[in-house]
Design brief:
Keywords: Developmental protein, Differentiation, Neurogenesis, Nucleus, Transcription, Transcription regulation. By secondary structure, the chain is an all-alpha fold. It contains five helices and no strands.
Length: 120
């Protein structure tokens, strides 16, 4: 009885740990899909994925900070696309821009985060 109870608890703990690791691996796979890899042929390690995510977040933060210094998204697009021919960027710059009430990051990048649930 006592040995069987300990074995059942150990099996339950192992199952919980497997679910936890599956959830963690799923989260890393989802992060790898949204983080740029710049020509990597192999899958990034967890450590490399976190490093790349940090660099990517810092770069996007700098872009947002820079963009917020301009009066509109169109001014920002014009500044960063001035080295292209007008035919290449004017269709984008003249496009209907999202409402000013939307968060700035969503207006600039059009990104809607996926809902994410933690494994229990």
């Amino acid at each position: 009885g006592r040995l069987e109870s300990a074995a059942r608890r150990r099996l339950a703990a192992n199952a919980r740990e497997r679910r936890r690791m599956q959830g963690l691996n799923t989260a890393f796979d989802r992060l790898r899909r949204v983080v740029p890899q710049w020509g990597q042929d192999k899958k990034l390690s967890k450590y490399e994925t976190l490093q790349m995510a940090l660099s990517y977040i810092m770069a996007l933060t700098r872009i947002l900070a820079e963009a917020e210094r301009f009066g509109s998204e169109r001014d920002w697009v014009n500044l960063h696309c001035e080295h292209f021919g007008r035919d290449h960027y004017l269709p984008f710059a003249g496009a209907k821009l999202p409402a000013e009430t939307e968060p700035y990051g969503q207006r600039l990048f059009g990104f809607q985060p996926e809902p994410f649930q933690m494994a229990s």
